[in-house]
Amino acid sequence: MGITDVLLATNRLPLPAAALAFARAGIAVFPCALAGKHPLTPAGFHDASCDINQVGAWWVRWPGANIGMPTGSSSGIDVIDIDVTDAASGFTAFARASTAGLIDGEIARVRTPSQGMHVYFPALATRPQRCWQAATAHVDFRGTGGYVVVPPSILVTRNGRVSYRLYSLSGVGARPVDAVALRRFIDPRAAQAASRPAEAASPEPSRLAQWVSKLQEGERNSGLFWAACRLIEAGFAPAAVEAVLAPAAQTAGLPEPEITATISSASRRAAAGPSGGPNGIPGGHGYDRTSPGSRRGDAP
Known about the structure:
35% of the residues lie in helices and 17% in strands. The chain has helices at residues 3-9, 15-24, 52-61, 91-99, 179-186, 188-193, 205-213, 220-233, 238-252, 256-272; strands at 30-34, 65-70, 77-82, 108-111, 117-122, 132-134, 139-142, 147-150, 154-157, 160-163, 165-169. Helix 2 (15-24) packs antiparallel against helix 3 (52-61), helix 7 runs antiparallel to helix 8 and helix 9 (238-252) crosses helix 10 (256-272).
């Protein structure tokens, strides 16, 4: 069973059964708040699992939890998120990109509760693509270092409780989207501004804090986690890391309990060192000295 089979099955499954369906297909998931997008586990999508026992235990504890899926390398799925508000819509920019031939090869489309769209593409483990947000175009990209909420999760909108639902499956050959080319096309000024100076040999807390403060939804948890790991690796105590990064994370929009939990998780995983999973992290969720899902030199 692949992602298309799971998306088809979610039309008739309750949330706990749907979460298990993703896990059985080898797609790691994690619980999000009832009728919300906020992760319920301490390290957010870093805790995602396809272990049947773990996923089952989560949804026994939180039977109404929405389902989060990490994007990018860990799931094999990249997602273009088309936003819709009262004032604007990302469908215009998406249509332009489609005409230009930049978004051929999709796997599926999922209608979001806001009447926007998640467009799924295959992700290559050998070519991770980082998340970005083109605010002026109302199009976001969720790659390595991000996550999306998946069907049949439910949000509360002004129209009541509305679920994420499968909209269409593609009948043509699936292939990855070039996220860099897409961003340059729909929002070239933002693409130029996204470049960040290469990191120094020793991390500068003020620069990391400034970077964390500018993170967007979908990349805030992973960015905070990565920045905290960098400081802890450099010898900063967890209390000092929290003092530096917590205000910046609050500026980015993360709630205080999640900030504390994420920094604590980074401290535990960084302290595990090479005795943990790949890259020294228990359970195999690796981090390295670049930001999650980034290319060398993109992070501060």
